[in-house]
Amino acid sequence: MSDKSNQPEEKGFFEKVKETIEELWEGTKDKAEDIKDAAEDKIEDLTKKAPKKTTVKRKVATAKKAITTKAADVTKKTTEVKKKAETKAADVKKKAEAKVADIKTKAKKEVAAAKDKATTAKKTATTKATAVKKPVTAKADTAKKTVSAKSTTAKSKAKAA
Questions:
Q1: What does pTM read for this prediction?
Q2: Residue 49 near residue 36, CB atoms below 8 Å
Q3: 1 near 54, Cβ under 8 Å?
Q4: In Å, how far are 52, 138, 149 from 47, measured between CA atoms?
């Protein structure tokens, strides 16, 4: 029988956040490229339909600049979002690690306190047991002396008779 589980390993919180960020990044990149392609197609259509004038060329140049500016803005915003998400994930991780450390120290203190209580209880029980043993032992010794004295007296009477 194998020790390996048949179920896939679960991903951690930070891995999920990282994947989400990557998906956002790829999605915005693709969107920017789509916008750029659509704009280029529109520009080509306009240049084919419009008469060859300098105003059309200016409009095309202006449109191209606007498109490249928008694409750059989208890319810049996605990098900012990605950085913010990574920073947030790091902060959450630090807080979680600090909480775990606090819980561990509290648990260690509680374990030490429980051990101290157990040791104190054991000492108390030992002290009580010896306190109970002493009178019983004393009574037993007295009874032995009485029995031995009686048996000695009985033996001496038996010899005398």
A1: 0.36
A2: no
A3: no
A4: 8, 122, 137
